[in-house]
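Take a look at my tokenised protein here and describe the backbone shape.
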Amino acid sequence: MKASFLTMMEEEKTLQLSRRQVRQHIFSLIYNLGFYEDKDFEKMADQYLSSQDLTACEQSSTVRDKAITVMRMRDELDAMIDSKSDHWKTKRIAKVDLAIIRLALYEMLEDEDVPVGVAINEAVRLAKKYSSDQAPGFVNGVLAAFVPDKTEE
């Protein structure tokens, strides 16, 4: 009886991801989808979820849907990034950093469940973990340009 209970507990752990883990998978999927055409997004997203053993995860649809939505909005997001980042247009930004910025900007503008400060902090955390030493400051600077200045209000 104990072994089956422990097995059940282990299965429950693998089926539930933290918000940070969900965000990391969304970021990874956004990065990966950047190498494919729009028509292949669903297929590639499903393959990613399967390869990461996330198909039974409660948040798998969140990971899939959010990543695909961000990628479908990439032209709009990139135009916004280009308008705010001096000397660094999206064509020159490292693909890892661009995936992080796209996700954070989407969360800041479209996801009411994620406060702006959290989106920026998590983006900086992703940049520290997955990009260069200079990336956290760069990501923070680009995203900070989208935060309204309280003194202007």
